[in-house]
C-alpha cells in the first residue's frame, strides 16, 4: 500500500527501513526518503506503521 502518494513511498519501504536500518521515528524516515515533504498527509499513517513495526519486533524479541 502506498503511504506517500506524492513520492510513491510504500508501507513495505517504511517497514524495511525500520527493520534493516534501525530507524525508529519520522525524522529518520525523512532523512532517507521524501516522505512528508509535499502535502504531509502521509506523516500520521507512516508514524503508525513505524510504531506497529517496532512493536512487532519487540514482541518477537521477547
Which key terms come to mind for this protein?
single chain; 62 residues; mainly alpha; 3 helices; 60% helix
Figure out the total of helices: 3
> In what order do the strands lie side by side in the largest sheet?
1-2
Give Rg in angstroms.
11 Å
Q: Roughly how much helix do the residues carry, as a percent range?
A: 55-70%
Spell the H/E element sequence.
Answer: EEHHH
Quaternary structure annotation? single chain
Q: What is the residue-averaged pLDDT?
A: 95
Strand portion: 5-15%
CA-to-CA gap between the ends?
A: 29 Å
Pfam families: Fer2_BFD (PF04324)
GO molecular function: 2 iron, 2 sulfur cluster binding; metal ion binding
Family: Belongs to the Bfd family.
Domain BFD-like [2Fe-2S]-binding: 2-52
Task: Tell me about this structure.
There is one protein chain. It is built from 3 helices and 2 strands. The protein has helices at residues 11-21, 26-32, 43-61, and strands at 2-4, 9-10. Strands 1-2 form a two-stranded antiparallel ribbon. Helix 1 crosses helix 3. It is elongated and about 40 Å long.
Blueprint (SSEs and pairs):
Layout: E1 2-4, E2 9-10, H1 11-21, H2 26-32, H3 43-61
Antiparallel strand pairs: 1-2
Helix pairs in contact: 1-3
Q: What is the structure about, briefly put?
A:
This protein has 62 residues and is mainly alpha-helical. The protein has helices at residues 11-21, 26-32, 43-61, and strands spanning 2-4, 9-10.
Amino acid at each position: 500500500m502506498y503511504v506517500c502518494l506524492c513520492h510513491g513511498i510504500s508501507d513495505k519501504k517504511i517497514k524495511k527501513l525500520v527493520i534493516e536500518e534501525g530507524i525508529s521515528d519520522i525524522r529518520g524516515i525523512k532523512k532517507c526518503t521524501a516522505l512528508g515533504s509535499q502535502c504531509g498527509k502521509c506523516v500520521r499513517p507512516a508514524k503508525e506503521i513505524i510504531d506497529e513495526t517496532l512493536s512487532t519486533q519487540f514482541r518477537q524479541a521477547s
